[in-house]
Amino acid sequence: MTQDLDIAQVAALVGEPARAAMLLALGDGRALPAGELAACAGIAAPTASEHLRLLREGGLLRRVRQGRHHYHRLASPEVAALLESLMLVATQRPGDSAISRVPSRLQDGRTCYSHLAGRLGVGLCDALIERQCLSIHEDVARLTPRGLDFLRDFGMDVRAWERHPESKTCIDWSERRHHLSGPLGVALLRRLKELRWVQQDLDSRAVSLTASGLRGLRDRFGAWPAH
Fold this sequence. Notes:
about 230 residues; Arc Repressor Mutant, subunit A; 2 domains; two-stranded antiparallel ribbon; 11 helices
């Protein structure tokens, strides 16, 4: 019964529309001030403060301090995974048009707590599978020897995956297919940013390919459609 109550409490926290909007705004791992989160949710600052307090007490958010300013971020990657799972379930309801209400930029590419999601994230995963660099079984991605060589040539440190060549995947809520998460997904996004092949919007989770990124992905990963 205690477990049921805990689930109900978390569900109640996430289920309130303003709180859900603030949580989703933090889904890329950034820390944002209360005022910006209030604007994301379309509510007044005092109301946002109360919602943020409840989310902190419920273990979904944590507050960080930088100088005299306070910011909020998701408490853990598990909270981000919970939000993505809820989005997946929400978009699978019969007759639901949730995806059509999501900005196309987020469907094209977005961050999901430090890894790539959307068409860009799914396309990256598909390309690695097509090149026999990766296999997926029951939501676990496993790098092949060819995959280790590919990532090494791509400028990535593969020592950790030489010992443990497995990483996590997520079912992308907008594409309904796998994208890479876990350490491998995080490392790939970091490398793409280092190369300046992708850029993230300053005020959203949207991620887009740069011109050099489109050329680079086509050269390295094979044919890559323009979004």
